[in-house]
User: Fold these one by one.
Assistant:
Number 1:
Amino acid sequence: MINVPFSPPDINEEDIAAVSAVLRSGWVTTGPQAKMFEQEIAGACGTDRAVVLNSATAALELTLRVLGVGPGDDVITTAYTYTATASVIHHVGARIVLVDIAADGYGIDADAVARAITPSTKAVIGVDVGGVVSDYDRLRSVAESARRSFLPKGRVQEVLGRIAIIADGAHSFGATRRGQTSGAVADFTSFSFHAVKNLITAEGGAVTWRADLGLDNEALYRDFMLLSLHGQSKDAFAKARNGGWEYDVELPGYKANMTDIMAALGRSQLRRYPEMLERRRAVALSYDSGFADLDVAPLPHSTADGESSLHLYMIDLAGRGVEQRNELISLLAERGVSSNVHYKPLPTLTAYRRMGFDIADFPKAHERYSNEVTLPLFSAMADEQVDHVIESFRNAINQIS
Ligand SMILES: *Cc1c(COP(=O)(O)O)cnc(C)c1O
């Protein structure tokens, strides 16, 4: 039987050679590879700067910290996401405010965001579910409308002068919206290079921000450097230079830097990322035509607003519901096809129920979740695997209907 894993890493000999070269170089942690990876990410996104870190979760948390978000503040995000989007709000001591998703797609409902804003609101985090960039322009105009009631705390908030619009772009590296690339659409964007994502460094992430926020890019970059490496005034690479031992600690910081081993893998992946995206697109197009006559609704990856990064092939099973969805997943598994559900809305998870969230308050998220299944989609996918998924899905959907 043909086996189809959900999202295995796409590692080739060039990736292995790039990592080996770092292992042989005598410098394995944050150094020249990480700095070059930052420049290449900024180049790919069309931003002035990027910061590479050890995860997207760290990128999101440090973004909130750079913005000065903390106890007494509210941060609004969507119920339809992975826990990391919301847990970072908790980590900085702010209050998690969850809102439902919009009537179409899987993105945050901007009208619900507008209703949830209070003078305590400091940031909104949207999520690019499946690789589709959310409508951050709309969120920014919601934040602009609330400008007069915004109470800035600290230097960065004073310059921004309004609620910050943050993208959880864990899925959307390489995606576009209205001519801009993910990373330059929201005010701040975090990316994940975790092993199941589109471009991988095993564990890893990055943060970018728009150059037109009125903020001092060098000062922001330095804030991220300090927060991500103990608050130390020099990184280990700078200290390792002859005579460069002297340093200061400016604040009790965190430890979230990316190693050169990871960065070398990321740089190697980035060199062939256009081909990887092309393969993902070809697989998604095969699925689209393979399911065109079925009563299901795959997430559109190519629209008038732009191109997604084709991270997840998400299918809406058109009202069939949880039991039939779960039965479908079992039938696929029997044929060697692994699938997933994106996402269990946060209010259905124990941690968020304990915080007082009730899924009954998020009807759209509950409805979308109940009918969602995600099929395997990865750049190293063979044609016969694609054909097997199409055949298996068509069989399974007929059995459950
Ligand atoms: C994977 C993921 C994260 C976390 O990424 P890490 O790099 O593992 O921290 C955050 N948000 C979403 C939507 C994700 O899919």
Number 2:
Amino acid sequence: MDCYLVWFLRIPVLCYLAGLVIGGDSGSLSSGQGVYNSSTTPSNLPWNTYNYCNAPHVNAKHYSLPANASHAKLVYMNAVIRHHKRSPDNLYPEENELNSVPWDCTDFTQYSYGGSGSHVFHETSIPSWHPFLSQIWNGTCDTGQLTKGGFDDATAHGKACWSINEKDIFIRTSTETRTFQVASGVLVGMDPAMAAKSFPVTTQPSPIDSIVPAYSCPAADAIRNAYQSVPAWTDHLDANADLKARLDATLGTANRSDWASWYDHFFDTFTSRTCHGHPLPCNSTGACVSEADAAKVVAIGDWEYDYIWNAAENATAYSQLTFGTSVLSLAQNFKLFRSGGDPYKLRFYVGHDGSMIRLASLLGLGKVAPLRWPALGSEIVMEVWQSKKEKFVRVIHEGTPVVGFEWILLDAFISSLESQVPASIFELCNSS
Ligand SMILES: *[C@@H]1O[C@H](CO)[C@@H](O)[C@H](O)[C@H]1NC(C)=O
Ligand SMILES: *[C@@H]1O[C@H](CO)[C@@H](O)[C@H](O)[C@H]1NC(C)=O
Ligand SMILES: *[C@@H]1O[C@H](CO)[C@@H](O)[C@H](O)[C@H]1NC(C)=O
Ligand SMILES: *[C@@H]1O[C@H](CO)[C@@H](O)[C@H](O)[C@H]1NC(C)=O
Ligand SMILES: *[C@@H]1O[C@H](CO)[C@@H](O)[C@H](O)[C@H]1NC(C)=O
Ligand SMILES: *[C@@H]1O[C@H](CO)[C@@H](O)[C@H](O)[C@H]1NC(C)=O
């Protein structure tokens, strides 16, 4: 077998062998459709079906070589993923009564310790006598905490296609614990020996973290407020007023502006439950959110994500201001590689839904088809291939090469990244 089939990261040979057999049928579905109640996509559905609980990703069985790769070899890549499944980030005003199943995190040890110190881990306790118990579920999970199921999905993600020489990989995460934990799961999936090893992940200080993104940008906020104040946005809130009233009555969320301005919190609190096999919430009088209403919420969630970060008039300006700093760092990586100066072969990022949707939008993936809410474990891989004379980039989204992004000159790809980074982004963010 020609050596171009042997990837520098060793195992993807497996991918390559599979790749010769040829990859995937399209699993694309329209908004709101897909799997929302299990990390395992049922075998009667295409492998790359949208699965909110555990997105499809590059894997040995369905990896395909680029059509143009006959004289090219893979030489470099950057990959960005969202963390895997977790407990809800948002709480209902009367959270306790809206969980018939406690949230159990005792099956996953939460280590956090200082360098040479004892291996301290923390266990969350929610005592029944706590005066504020009504505001939280019963059990042993904090909010937004990676679960054992999420960790297992991260490990499977790392196992799916990758193998590493640990010296070849650079990992960047946000400052959220769940992103470190996902990195640790991915690493051990790539190489079980990593379980016994320490490995650095790089973060930025939370006030200026580019990956969430967390840096303040009042000009971007103003742009977004403007396009969420026009009928193109407000019409969908008006059209779904009945749904909202039903949800509010059952969940006690009326008059809460953060539950009224969009469907984000309903989406999070429903899907976090269903992805973990918990039922949709039922209140103390026995009334439950219906499957039909939950289905409406997830479809609206897809629409909102596409509108805010991709489709709205000025969405590009908003995404550029809020994610330009991350895109700048990607552009720097590819330039460093081009100049022969990148010591790493794989730069791997673990971020959030907000990272994935902005990157997808700024890469132009939303011009191919409307974007959906980035699923847990969502993945964008940017491969660099060296042909006889030129270097090319291929972009793979949720395990499937993106139409129109299969073979782009590296120089053109870098220019396209740079074109999404506003000049003087700091000044622009803080201009009125
Ligand atoms: C998940 O939802 C689908 C569609 O609503 C349903 O057919 C399936 O039985 C559910 N699976 C689980 C594990 O609850
Ligand atoms: C890539 O392959 C396509 C289809 O075979 C061909 O039309 C195109 O010219 C190739 N591009 C390059 C840069 O080799
Ligand atoms: C939650 O804990 C409270 C206090 O111990 C108890 O009254 C309630 O029944 C528990 N709920 C569930 C669903 O276990
Ligand atoms: C988009 O930005 C332009 C220029 O600032 C502004 O005139 C227009 O009203 C904005 N559109 C929306 C929908 O906010
Ligand atoms: C439970 O939901 C029903 C139906 O939406 C509603 O009428 C009732 O007031 C709710 N009860 C509580 C305690 O929130
Ligand atoms: C919401 O506000 C309306 C009008 O101010 C009031 O009648 C209603 O009781 C409030 N509902 C809740 C759940 O606080």
